[in-house]
Design goal:
This protein has 346 residues and is mainly beta. It is built from one helix and 21 strands. The two termini are 27 Å apart.
């Protein structure tokens, strides 16, 4: 499937569809500070609002969080609810800012009941000022032909990029200087969170500068898709297949342990690799539309790889632990039916 991606795609796109969404998302983790998080703005101009999320995983295990649907009347820029994104140089440098308040969650799972979480926990003033620079070439774009069925649209165009994040984060009286790695994405087109039956989105940054994204998107009546990419430090290599298994915890069934086996294209054919993840902290988010409930669980995850991504030959080994240990997010979206996530069996 051929895709188009140009520097102009770093900016805004037209969208006449009622559920048109244009969004950017930036995550990061700084191992030295043990601080991570993500910021997202999704413009829904034809519905008259944006979706703005800030989530910070603090070093002591607390989570600082907010979500708003501020009113907007156009899709001219990413600026809503105190957050803003600025493209300085396409694919090379972008700036992410937030100034406002965040609720401080001693128990991040409290966000399963957003109303109670927002009213029963303290709030602090906060600021985020991060400059993101490209650490890999972008992956994805807009396909020449539509790849989504009517009613199941999630993104007409979509690309992702491994990045480096530098700047400052402040919550209340605490302030951190950030020098970390992460992933960003940009998507546009019709979107409802109820379109996928479930998905798994794993973002991974290794300490040696390599990284990956693995994706599993399921349909209720079909096989869905499996794929992603690997950045080996010099170039992108597509992932042709990925199988993800999960160990769940708690009565509400949140993901805790992850094993992903995937095939990455090598010089002599596909290479089978294995990635394992342990969720260090998790916050459950919720979206409701037309009587359906969708849960998006955001897990700060420590990743371990079977061997370095920079290895070009099977059996290669490295004594550098940063090449096989990394950090990132594991995002699990599930439709909730009879109180359970529909993707539990995978």
């Amino acid at each position: 499937m051929k895709v188009r991606l140009e520097p102009a795609d770093e900016y805004m796109h037209p969208g006449p569809e009622p559920t048109f969404n244009e969004s950017m998302y930036f995550n990061f983790f700084d191992p030295s500070e043990q601080l991570g998080g993500f910021v997202r703005i999704g413009n829904r101009p034809n519905e008259g609002h944006a979706e703005m999320t800030v989530c910070l995983y603090l070093p002591d295990g607390r989570v600082a969080f907010t979500f708003h649907r501020p009113e907007i009347d156009s899709n001219e820029r990413f600026a809503a609810g105190g957050a803003s994104f600025e493209v300085i140089t396409p694919f090379e440098e972008l700036r992410v800012r937030y100034d406002g308040k965040l609720v401080i969650l001693d128990e991040p799972l409290d966000m399963a009941d957003p109303r109670a979480a927002f009213t029963s926990n303290p709030w602090e003033t906060a600021s985020v000022d991060l400059t993101y620079s490209g650490a890999s070439t972008p992956f994805g774009g807009e396909p020449e032909e539509s790849h989504e069925r009517p009613g199941e649209e999630f993104a007409r165009g979509h690309y992702e990029q491994l990045v480096q994040a530098r700047g400052t984060v402040r919550v209340g009286e605490e302030e951190w200087s950030v020098d970390g790695r992460g992933l960003r994405d940009h998507s546009w087109g019709p979107r409802t969170w109820q379109a996928p039956w479930y998905y798994r989105w794993l973002t991974v940054n290794m300490g040696d500068g390599t990284g990956m994204m693995l994706s599993r998107i399921a349909r209720a009546d079909g096989p869905g898709t499996r794929g992603g990419f690997v950045w080996d430090g010099t170039g992108l290599r597509p992932v042709d297949h990925v199988e993800i298994s999960t160990e769940w915890i708690g009565e509400d069934l949140y993901h805790q342990q992850i094993t992903a086996r995937f095939d990455v294209r090598g010089p002599d054919g596909p290479l089978r690799r294995e990635l394992t993840g342990e969720v260090r902290n998790l916050i459950p988010l919720r979206n409701r539309r037309d009587g359906r409930v969708t849960r998006i669980s955001e897990g700060l995850t420590v990743w371990t790889l079977d061997r370095p991504l920079s290895a070009s030959e099977p059996g290669h080994d490295s004594s550098d632990p940063s090449a096989t240990t990394g950090y990132g997010l594991s995002e699990y979206l599930d439709q909730i039916i009879d109180g359970e996530p529909v993707g539990r069996a995978e």
